[in-house]
Write a structure and sequence with these properties.
Blueprint (H helix, E strand, L loop, with lengths): L1 H27 L7 E8 L17 H7 L3 E3 L9 H10 L3 H4 L15 H7 L3 E7 L21 E5 L9 E4 L6 E2 L4 H16 L6 E10 L8 H4 L19 H31 L6 E7 L20 H4 L3 E4 L10 E2 L5 H11 L14 H5 L9 E5 L12 E5 L3 E6 L2 E7 L17 H17 L7 H7 L33
Parallel strand pairs: 1-7, 1-8, 2-10, 3-4, 3-7
Antiparallel strand pairs: 2-9, 4-5, 5-6, 8-9, 11-12, 12-13, 13-14
């Protein structure tokens, strides 16, 4: 009997030991921390205006080095190449015609599900610096927390291009402040402090660093960087033809490149901080821009965008992610479009993609980059405004090789961007390209059908969303808020035939 009791006792303790051991093992298994995200969004930085992209003039050593550590989407495009529509599409993963965010200086409805709200729900800290341009309550008005679309830490302003005395709001303080140095350096300095304070948090972070350069005014670039570029020595692209404004173009380019080089230096400081804090192994880093800049190409004045030519449409897009390893420096020639960015970041972070998101999850292409892959990106200008008020609306597709665009009056642009990188030979209706043109036209129609869109006059969409332009400037009158008479304009769809 004693022997049986001893056996039972031993069995009990052995089972208890195994149970404890199993319990300890279960506690030791933790879900890996989701990746941090640092998204560097610049303003009006065109896709070819970087050293790594082949520009013979500009000096961008930090981004050149980063391009060797990341995936380079050589044909990234802005879904609508102007500020507010791009930023709305970036945060929602939806097309401008779906959200109604088709022009500058309108309010992104709070009902829209945004990037920061999604990541925040997954346990992320969220932070935003710099230019916002999604609030629609005037360009210098305080933006309270409930209108920040899920971003908690906040050192931002709706819109300003006063780079040497950049205004901003500090979180919930409604008193306007000013950065004490050239804004790209000031913003990065504050972002670096944030990264240091949150580097060891259990929660990951989404940090969006929105730098407003190299958008004009170009003459405000620091002199030491302007001295690097003498206007008469700058090499102009072949599609910038001799004209009466050539001297002006060279002068603007001097400041544009100066802003680019200064901003590159600031971004280098941010990238170095990520490395120094040991965050590189678990951080997705993106460098991109909201649109480009025509700068005299095709005879179009400097500052202009909203157009389907590459100078306006194409933007830089570099992405580095944890475990990139042998993919460092890889090139993807298939376009990535603005609505694709959010679902791709969600895919890389293993977060469920909401059914309302219209962009495509390209995370597998990012993880397995292939320069031969192709796809078509749908781009548009629904309601040209301000300096582009005389332009006709367009819908277009960009593949790794072709640009094909249609206006109200029919097809108006067809370029082979490989054979003709400066888009000087319009192939429209040429017999030898008829088959390709038909294929591109069918693809464009399929893309538009998928999102319930078709090309219509500007007035159709202004009526649909109840937008009122200033009669003289042909834009949303954001300046009226400074006069105390501004009215918020936000998409209010009306059912039209």
């Amino acid at each position: 009997m004693k022997t049986i009791n001893q056996a039972l006792i031993l069995t009990f303790f052995f089972a208890a030991f195994l149970s404890c051991k199993k319990e300890v093992k279960t506690e030791a298994i933790k879900q890996p921390k989701k990746p941090n995200i640092v998204y560097i969004l610049t303003d009006q930085w065109r896709g070819d205006a970087l050293g790594y992209a082949g520009d013979p003039n500009v000096k961008t050593p930090n981004l050149d080095a980063f391009s060797k550590e990341s995936i380079n989407f050589t044909n990234a495009v802005s879904v609508t190449p102007v500020c507010t529509p791009h930023r709305a599409a970036l945060l929602t993963g939806k097309f401008p015609t779906s959200t109604g965010m088709i022009v500058n200086d309108i309010y992104l409805p709070s009902e829209e599900l945004t990037m920061a709200e999604i990541f925040k729900a997954e346990g992320y800290n969220t932070a935003y610096w710099g230019k916002w341009h999604l609030d629609g309550h005037g360009r210098s008005t305080f933006i309270p927390k409930e209108r920040r679309q899920g971003f908690d830490y906040w050192k931002a302003l709706e819109c300003s291009h006063n780079y040497n005395k950049m205004p901003y709001y500090d979180n919930d303080n409604p008193q306007l402040k000013h950065w004490e140095q050239y804004s790209p350096f000031a913003i990065v300095e504050d972002a670096n402090t944030y990264l240091k304070e949150h580097a060891k948090d259990e929660k990951p972070f989404l940090a969006m660093v929105s730098i407003a350069t190299p958008h004009f005014p170009h003459d405000s670039a620091p002199q030491k960087y302007k001295d690097l570029y003498q206007p008469e020595s700058l090499k102009l692209n072949p599609n910038v033809t001799k004209s009466s404004i050539e001297n002006r173009i060279r002068k603007e380019l001097q400041g544009y490149y100066a802003h680019a080089t200064a901003t590159d230096e600031a971004i280098g400081q941010l990238l170095q901080q990520i490395e120094d804090l040991g965050l590189s192994d678990n951080t997705i880093i993106v460098f991109s821009a909201d649109h480009g800049e025509m700068m005299g190409a095709h005879g179009v004045r400097p500052f202009a965008k909203q157009m389907a030519w590459d100078e306006s449409l194409r933007v830089p897009f570099l992405i580095k992610y944890p475990g990139i390893k042998e993919n460092k420096g890889a090139v993807v020639n298939a376009p990535i479009n603005t609505p694709d960015i959010l679902p791709s970041l969600l895919g890389l972070s293993k977060i469920k993609i909401n059914d309302e998101i219209e962009g495509e999850d390209l995370s597998q292409l990012i993880l397995n980059p292939n320069p031969n892959t192709d796809r078509a990106a749908l781009v548009m200008n629904v309601a040209p405004f301000a300096g582009n008020k005389n332009d006709t609306p367009f819908r277009a597709i960009r593949t790794k090789r072709y640009t094909y665009a249609v206006s109200i009056d029919g097809p108006n642009m067809f370029y082979d961007n490989v054979a003709d990188p400066y888009q000087q030979n319009n192939l429209l209706d040429k017999p030898e390209f008829k088959t390709i043109q038909t294929e591109l036209d069918n693809t464009l129609k399929e893309k538009l059908t998928k999102i319930g869109d078709k090309i219509r006059p500007r007035e159709y969409y202004l009526n649909k969303y109840n937008y009122s332009f200033d009669e003289k400037r042909k834009a949303i009158p954001y300046w009226e808020f400074d006069e105390g008479t501004g009215e918020v304009q936000s998409p209010k769809p009306i059912q039209l035939d």
